[in-house]
Write a structure and sequence with these properties.
heterodimer; A: 4 helices; globular; B: two-stranded antiparallel sheet; 45% helix; 10% strand; C-typ_cyt_methanol_metab-rel (chain B); iron (chain B); Cyt_c-like_dom_sf (chain B); Cyt_c-like_dom (chain B); electron transfer activity (chain B)
């Protein structure tokens, strides 16, 4: 009898979540709303709206603005569900619900109480990449790793759960991804020796569903040694242990602070893992699996179907956390389910997302020099591995040696700032960094909750180029080629948005919102917002009219690294200080700017 | 032009006695108040601790305070703090941390007291920042440096090994 009752309850619960899931899918497919940070499960960041198009975008005007009241770096974007816009902020992670029917009047405001001690544990600013919506709830994953489910209508807390321990350096900057009856969350802290994990909580009550670590025993990393594959072959036993020396996997890094995608047909969640700790490669011999890895996991159980480690034994801090963009495209005469990823290491990867087969790996910045190529021959013992250039190997050059002229710099050819894909042009629009570095690793010791870095870096714009620190490019992921490239003075640190209006939007660190022609890259519109842009462009409609919205508020790693300008120690005296300082162009301040065509 | 004007201003903004070398011991330099300071020779050669401070600063401090003590959107310019703050106050803030959390600021310096990667090199970081504050050492990687003395090496090993 008892068993029958439980089964009945489970059936009911299952039915409820299935309905919630279908509703969310429907909302995601509606171009008038923007319900999760990535726009859709595929992370395409493509809007089917076309009222604003390449012919009339020049007339775009500011419709309204909203100050967030917070000065730190503003990443992510607002959401729009129905007639309500949700705006989040960096620490203290305030969330506002704005009434679009009533001149953006504040319906509710949620401000969590967080211990300020979390602030300095967040490497590189207290950014937060935004809230997500599902099942009439707004999900906020705070800096201190508390995950809160808020009633979307009232802002009341429905449940909360704590995902990590900030006193050990575990923090959060990422958004979350609602999938079916679960919400998927990641963790930050690679610079503090945190062992990364991806965790699923049940949407109904916040209880833990599964957690998959990036390294450690097979039971922790949730693999089946016989069935989970790496480049088509079973991974085998203890891969997360025997690629590390001793117990180093326990402080191994591989954090999961980027973006998450989902393929409902395969029921797979895709994401990437970050750098192994420390930045001194000599202190952690081995391939350091599964740091720097693209992961495909079953959404219900967390068990991995396949992994692909892009940068075995990292020597440059090339975190693999950037977004995985899912597409269905023609590849050599066959329609395939693809996954495209622009890695920090400067290679643009195209994989078969069902099997994990590597299809394309080409440099998306011609200045990338740390590796000559990624071996594509499945019969080679180097299959899938980057061929490291000795001159730029901080491992081969050794501790206490300064390796110079490495491209890209540690911030990568691209960091988390997400690219966009237009199914209409078949092109990817990618915000990039054009920065190189010197890197000197040295010995460090681990203390819980303290930085665990172990390298000195100097960064500077790529040499023999246009002198700027960024490019905004269009990329063909089948050919592995740049189609066009727009030079930018600073790294492009804003997420892009392509639309059916044949245009692509992005923001710049000086604070410009720009619109360019999706086919040619020709600039069609530019407007300087109050502060530098590290947020992501989104679009929605209200009362039948299309709007474009962007968060300004300079900060993040860009604000730290570029505020005072960069110097190239190899340029000789006199050139020092010769590069633009971001602080000459913009100042702190969080603001939302919403654009529309004139009535 | 502008930068030379700024440098002239910076030179007047501090008391020479804060940085003037009174004596040296085992490759380290001190003011007459026994406070660590930097030493730059005429050909630009800097003392080992200042060079060591350059390396350690860019490992431990850079991620918040920006390159070369210049400050960032996130945290203040330490090249100024090293001149504006008393040496013992500087040690206190690094060791125990400091919070400025209010309506307009949420700036929190963590306590590094238990972190050997910082505390074993705290004087090195201090003298590097002082040298940056007076512009005695330019931005970028210092080119010439004195060797590491045996005493410094032994004390470093003892500090990290503990």
């Amino acid at each position: 009898m008892g068993r029958l009752l439980i089964s009945a309850a489970m059936l009911l619960l299952g039915a409820g979540t299935a309905v919630a899931d279908a509703n969310l899918q429907k909302l995601i497919e509606d171009p008038n709303q923007w319900v999760i940070q990535t726009g859709d499960y595929k992370n395409q960041r493509f809007s089917k709206l076309d009222q604003i198009n390449k012919d009339n975008v020049k007339d775009l005007q500011v419709a309204w603005t909203f100050s967030t009241g917070v000065l730190r770096g503003h990443e992510g974007s607002p959401l729009v569900i129905g007639d309500i816009m949700y705006v989040h902020t960096p620490f203290p992670n305030t969330v506002y619900a704005l009434d679009l029917n009533n001149e953006a009047r504040i319906i509710w405001k949620y401000e969590p109480k967080q211990n300020a001690d979390v602030i300095p544990v967040m490497c590189c600013d207290t950014v937060n990449r935004g809230v997500a919506y599902a099942d009439n709830k707004i999900f906020l994953h705070q800096a201190d790793t508390k995950l809160v489910a808020l009633d979307a209508k009232t802002g009341e807390e429905i449940w909360s759960v704590v995902n990590g321990d900030p006193t050990k350096g575990e923090t959060n900057t990422a958004t979350v991804l609602p999938v079916k009856d679960k919400v998927i969350v990641g963790i930050s802290g690679g610079e503090f020796g945190v062992r990364g994990s991806l965790t699923a909580y049940n949407i109904a009550d916040g209880s833990l569903a599964w957690r998959a670590y990036s390294m450690g025993p097979d039971s922790d990393i949730l693999i089946d040694p016989e069935k989970t594959t790496h480049l088509g072959k079973p991974i085998g036993k203890d891969s997360g242990l025997n690629t590390w020396e001793g117990d180093q996997w326990k402080i191994g890094g591989g954090t999961t602070w980027g973006w998450y995608s989902y393929d409902p047909e395969e029921n797979l969640v895709y994401y990437g893992t970050g750098n192994p700790s420390t930045w001194n490669p000599a202190q952690r011999p081995g391939d350091n699996r599964w740091s720097m890895t693209v992961m495909a996991r079953d959404a219900d159980t967390g068990v991995a179907r396949w992994f692909y480690q892009m940068t075995p034994h990292d020597e440059w801090d090339y975190d693999g956390i950037n977004e995985m963009i899912l597409t269905e495209q023609d590849f050599n005469g066959e329609t395939r389910k693809l996954l495209t990823h622009f890695d920090r290491n400067g290679f643009g990867y195209t994989l078969d997302r069902v099997t994990g087969e590597l299809l394309v790996a080409e440099k998306y910045d011609p200045k990338v020099n740390w590796a000559t190529e990624v071996v594509m021959d499945p019969n080679s013992d180097q299959y899938g591995r980057p061929q490291v250039v000795a001159e730029y190997s901080t491992e081969q050059n050794g501790e206490d040696v300064n390796s110079t002229g490495i491209c890209p710099a540690a911030l990568g050819s691209k960091d988390q700032q997400p690219a966009s894909y237009s199914p209409e042009t078949g092109l990817f629009y990618v915000p990039t960094n054009h920065v190189c570095m010197d890197y000197e690793p040295f010995r460090v010791s681990y203390t819980a909750g303290q930085p665990y870095v172990g390298a000195t870096l100097a960064m500077y714009p790529a040499g023999d180029s246009h002198g700027g620190m960024g490019n905004f490019i269009a990329w063909d992921n089948v050919k592995g080629e740049i189609v066009w490239s727009i030079p930018e003075q600073f790294s492009v640190w804003s997420g892009a948005l392509a639309t059916s209006g044949d245009i692509v939007f992005y923001g710049t660190l000086e604070g410009y919102l720009k619109a360019v022609d999706a086919k040619t890259g020709e600039e069609l519109y530019s407007f300087k917002t109050p502060s530098g842009i590290i947020g992501n462009v989104m679009s929605y409609t209200h009362n039948g009219k299309q709007y474009i919205a962007i968060l300004s508020g300079v900060g993040g790693w860009a604000g730290i690294g570029l505020a005072a300008g960069l110097t190239n120690p190899n340029d000789g005296l006199g050139a020092v200080g010769g590069y633009a300082a971001l602080s000459d162009y913009t100042a702190l301040g969080g603001q939302l700017t919403v654009f529309a065509l004139p009535n | 032009m502008v930068s030379s004007g700024l440098q002239a201003g910076a030179e007047e903004a501090y008391d020479k006695a804060l940085v003037a070398v009174a004596y040296s011991e085992d490759g380290r330099y001190f003011t007459e108040d026994d406070v660590p300071t930097y030493n730059v020779q005429e050909d630009g050669t800097i003392d080992w601790p200042t060079y060591s401070g350059f390396r350690r600063y860019h490992s431990e401090c850079h991620v918040c305070h920006g390159p070369e003590g210049e400050g960032s959107t996130y945290a203040p310019a330490l090249k100024k703090s090293a001149l504006d703050m008393d040496y013992y106050d500087f040690l206190d803030v690094v060791t125990n941390g400091r919070k400025k959390v209010n309506a307009s600021e949420n700036s929190v310096m963590p306590a590094f007291g238990t972190n050997p990667n910082v505390m074993c090199y705290i004087n090195d970081i201090y003298v590097y920042l002082k040298a940056r504050g007076t512009d005695a050492v330019a931005r970028g990687r210092p080119r010439k440096k004195e060797g590491k003395s045996d005493v410094i090496r032994e004390e470093e090993n003892a500090c990290l090994g503990g």
